[in-house]
Design goal:
By secondary structure, this protein is α+β, with helices and mostly antiparallel strands. It is built from one helix and four strands; from the N terminus they run βββαβ. The protein has a four-stranded antiparallel sheet with strand order 3-2-1-4, with helices on one face.
């Protein structure tokens, strides 16, 4: 039997759009000016603050010249749990 013990929760922000009719999340490669949209929120870029997410949106619009993506910032809580086997 495994007992879950909550260790930590962190607030992060993801950038999303529903322009395609389904929610997709922005993924930014840090080494390159390369953006993609993914359907799995686990693969999305997570920002540590709302202000950083706003900056990522500004860079996206500047780098891609796409101002019609309808990007929004969504707060998410990520939980890390320790698992104790009993």
């Amino acid at each position: 039997m495994k007992e879950k013990i909550l260790d930590k929760q962190v607030l992060r922000y993801v950038i999303a759009t529903t322009v395609s009719g389904k929610p997709t999340y922005l993924k930014k490669k840090l080494q390159k000016i390369e953006y993609s949209f993914v359907t799995d929120i686990d693969n999305a870029t997570k920002c540590s603050s709302y202000a950083i997410a706003e900056t990522v949106i500004k860079y996206y619009e500047h780098d891609t010249h796409d101002t019609n993506a309808g990007l929004i910032i969504i707060p998410v809580v990520i939980s890390y749990e320790l698992v104790k086997e009993v």
